[in-house]
Design brief:
The protein has about 300 residues and is of the alpha/beta class. It contains 10 helices and 6 strands, in the order αααααββββαβαβααα. Strands 1, 2, 3, 4, 5 and 6 form a 6-stranded mixed beta sheet that branches. Helix 7 links the parallel strand 5 and strand 6. Helix 1 packs across helix 2, helix 1 crosses helix 5 and helix 2 crosses helix 10. The longest helix has 22 residues. The protein is elongated and about 70 Å long. The two termini are about 25 Å apart.
Amino acid sequence: MIPKAKALKLIAIYLYICKLHGSELEHLSQRYTNNDKPDFTDQEIMTLYLFVTREEQRFSISQIYSFANNYLRSWFPALPSYKAFNNRLNRLSEAFKAVAAHSFANFIPPECDLDVSLLDSMPISKRKAKVAAEITDKGYCSTKSMYYFGCKLHALAFYNPKHLPFPERIVITPASENDLNVFRQDWGKIPNRAFFGDKIYNDKTFFEDLVINTNSTMFTPVKGVKGQPEVIKHRDKAADELFSAAVSTIRQPIESLFNWLIVNTDIQRAAKVRSTKGLLVHIFGKIAAAFIYIVF
């Protein structure tokens, strides 16, 4: 048994997933077999994953299943074996991705500044190079000064004064992908926006064209110019430091967003993932779980 307050949250999540399943998720988990209406539904699987991850802070699939089996069996009497649960869960990566996207699109806090976006990325590491090779490789995390094998989560988030920024879009790439390339490909056509990023987004020519083509501006800390005369460096030093500090102050909350996501979902560690679909469930399932309560 679980306390009444948690039971109400479990019911709320289930009803929300059922509502989305009828309108947005059904085609993402549709079956083409004779067992197209199993006793234990996809809605129930997603509800268990989201509830146990967010409410009980159980992050691995084995932990989620064990909790459900020990404490929620009366709620989910058709709960299958662990192997079947795991196999079914791995088919739902696109459904979890859709749940996260729905939250981002429909529950933006009213205090967010929709004209200002923050950008950054964080590593998601795993152990085995042969697992999920389509979306992983070796990369370098400058924040932690380390090489790792896995993928990278890139976030574009609305500035939210005095609160954590709110994600607008999330992109997953192999670990070696450059953040600036992701911006060019995925976000470089967003109009009328002020972007705040770190020095990796410093490309004078590209962002001069961005102002002309989209009326959007990228603000980054000032990056030193190779071969610049010392007299010019000293002349501009004070102004450059003030500007860089201002940009970093505005951009810093997105790092807090990543820290919050890690604490609440352990998303950064994917060592036990065994497949590409499993990795995508790990990422988008954790993201969906982190933001599920903004719906209620």
